[in-house]
């Protein structure tokens, strides 16, 4: 059976999206750190591996709260963006590697975080690798910002992505039963936290174009650009639109 990950080349998809990704992708709420502290007794001297770290969005949240982070990212352009953005944090170590082969030492990591990236990974080999690098006890947190569709604006935004995204359905977030299968036989806890992002016209477009499935050139892009302008103009208030998210955390305990 064909593996969809082989077809869509997840480690290469965002190379031409880095600038928009850095500028316009949403961060994560501080309440994520509070949840992790409450559920894992997270300590400042823990070794944390942020796998699929991308441009360092979640790594930055950890670093700002004083934690040591190994940011594991196979895409060179995204990894270099993270290194540049996080260069002032002396507790950050950049690692050129994949989730399936992190190059980290055996039993060296207290907490693994995967933010907005688990659905790009091979679950079988990633599970084996995470078992290898985790200390005992050790924790894994899978985290996503899930865009809501509970307003007319957000419903039309969802439709726009479906209309113009080249393989939108194939790159959707994994389902909870897949998370459960990945964590088995261990139990897991979950949390849903409110989050939102206010964007001007440039930011709204940039956030959309940071998605790997949206066209960047040609006639399809011109149609998309017109559609983005129309949607923004219909729903902006004081030059801004609001995108609401639920930040979902699945924590293996």
**How would you sum up the global shape?**
globular
How is the largest sheet built, in terms of strand order? 3-2-1-4-5-7-6
Task: Kindly state the number of beta strands.
Answer: 7
Radius of gyration (CA) equals 18 Å
The residue-averaged pLDDT reads 91
Strand percentage, roughly?
15-25%
Q: What is the CATH superfamily of the domain at 4-147 and 172-196 and 245-252?
A: Vaccinia Virus protein VP39
Distance between the termini: 32 Å
CATH class of the domain at 4-147 and 172-196 and 245-252: Alpha Beta
Find the structural class using helix and strand composition.
alpha/beta
Helix content: 25-40%
Low-confidence stretches: 1-8
Main sheet characteristics: 7 strands, mixed
CATH names the topology of the domain at 4-147 and 172-196 and 245-252 as: Rossmann fold
Task: Report the CATH architecture of the domain at 4-147 and 172-196 and 245-252.
Answer: 3-Layer(aba) Sandwich
Count of alpha/pi helices: 10
């Amino acid at each position: 059976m064909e593996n969809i990950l082989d077809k869509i080349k997840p480690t290469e998809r965002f190379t031409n999206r880095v600038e928009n990704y850095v500028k316009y992708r949403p961060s994560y709420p501080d309440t994520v750190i509070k949840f992790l502290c409450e559920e894992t007794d997270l300590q400042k001297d823990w070794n944390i591996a942020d796998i699929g770290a991308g441009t360092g969005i979640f790594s930055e949240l950890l670093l700002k709260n004083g934690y040591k982070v190994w940011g594991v990212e196979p895409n060179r352009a995204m990894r270099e963006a993270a290194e540049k953005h996080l260069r002032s944090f002396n507790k950050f170590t950049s690692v050129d590697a994949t989730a399936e082969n992190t190059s980290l030492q055996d039993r060296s990591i207290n907490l693994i975080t995967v933010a907005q990236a688990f659905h790009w990974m091979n679950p079988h080999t990633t599970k084996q690798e995470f078992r290898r690098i985790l200390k005992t006890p050790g924790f894994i947190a899978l985290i996503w910002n899930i865009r809501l569709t509970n307003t007319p604006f957000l419903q039309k935004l969802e439709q726009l992505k479906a209309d113009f995204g080249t393989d939108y359905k194939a790159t959707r977030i994994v389902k909870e039963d897949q998370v459960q299968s990945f964590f088995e036989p261990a139990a897991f806890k979950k949390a849903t936290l409110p989050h939102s992002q206010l964007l001007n016209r440039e930011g709204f477009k940039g956030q959309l174009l940071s998605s790997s499935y949206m066209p960047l050139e040609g006639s399809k892009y011109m149609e998309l650009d017109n559609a983005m302008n129309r949607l923004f103009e219909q729903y902006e208030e004081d030059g801004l639109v609001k995108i609401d998210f639920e930040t979902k955390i699945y924590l293996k305990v």
